[in-house]
């Protein structure tokens, strides 16, 4: 038996692998775009299946597609959603800028499966793609897959991270530690204050993502080729969004301006910007953890992260902060993805953006990476680190910056003199202040109590 079969499209005949469910146009894309080993993400392929299923149901209701054909298409889409044909989507990310190759890949695979189910010929362009164009399908698939990724993966992961930080704060929040600005000793803070800062970063990032999704869930489908809706029923868009919303559990609606969704990718650029904000927050938190964990002898050594794996192939006993490091690398990748999406978002030439596949790949990678790393950071770093109370107390008691609390009593210049002497002699600040002022030890203990200094205001 031959390993190939002959398929035909509007450009002629060509060989297709005998066992492939796709047809000629997909094969042309495979032949043309041998650029990378990157293919479209699974969430994107699933979104195409959701779109084709909702379109078939809509066209049947409108009376344009027979129930027999529509049911076969829906069943074929269900198989794809169940992960039965993941190997049938080989088109490279770096393809035609409209994503036509990926749209036709889905049309052809679904048509082949639907034809087997129906016992009749289902045509990729005429039946599966009825009332659609690649130019509204691909922007819709980008937004649908992004919404799925955010609502069902990223936002729950951020909620988990936020709650984990809150729980940790309840456990260790009353511990006072040396604050730091410019990586230098500063006024004391509590762990509750530090962790609340982290939690606010995560909560604000989640809020920004949620707000940006309002625009993402307004879809291009129904605009067809350029936004005018040519070859689609006027009833199609509303019916389509109803079926899609019911299938996915997210409230989608037709765009108020199809030209906007097809000619630009501003909604996804905005979402990417919010993901970049989250990435920078995660990098900040990861680096705080790395610094507090540094040492354990020659660094700050304020906390000890969970030991997850040996840290060196040559230095026995070394353990590294691997989860915060991985988190920082994810942040760097997401920031890079945002730059790609920003450049690609500028490529809306007249009525169509022509960098859609690379936008899809990068936004979905960012969502997936941030979802996974947020849970890892919560479970394998924040939830499990322990506090080294002895190291914290030693640094805190010797911190000359505590003298700041004496400014209202003895003045800035005298306080600076005491701080410098404490640095030079390595004495606790309270001992130097006792020798250099008329204040009693009881007064100084009250004024320099680190816990009271975390409350703000004037000490005393």
Structure description:
This protein has helices spanning 24-32, 42-62, 67-81, 100-118, 124-128, 134-172, 191-216, 236-248, 258-263, 266-293, 322-345, 356-382, 389-397, 407-410, 412-425, 429-436, 441-447, 450-453, and strands at residues 4-9, 12-17, 176-181, 184-190, 218-219, 253-254, 303-304, 348-349, 352-353, 386-387. The chain has 460 residues and is mainly α. The strands form five sheets. The chain has a two-stranded antiparallel ribbon with strand order 1-2. The protein has a two-stranded antiparallel sheet with strand order 3-4. The chain has a two-stranded parallel sheet with strand order 5-6. A hairpin with a 2-residue loop joins strand 3 (176-181) and strand 4. Helix 11 runs antiparallel to helix 12.
Characteristics of this structure?
two-stranded antiparallel sheet; 18 helices; 460 residues; elongated; 10 strands; two-stranded antiparallel ribbon; mainly alpha
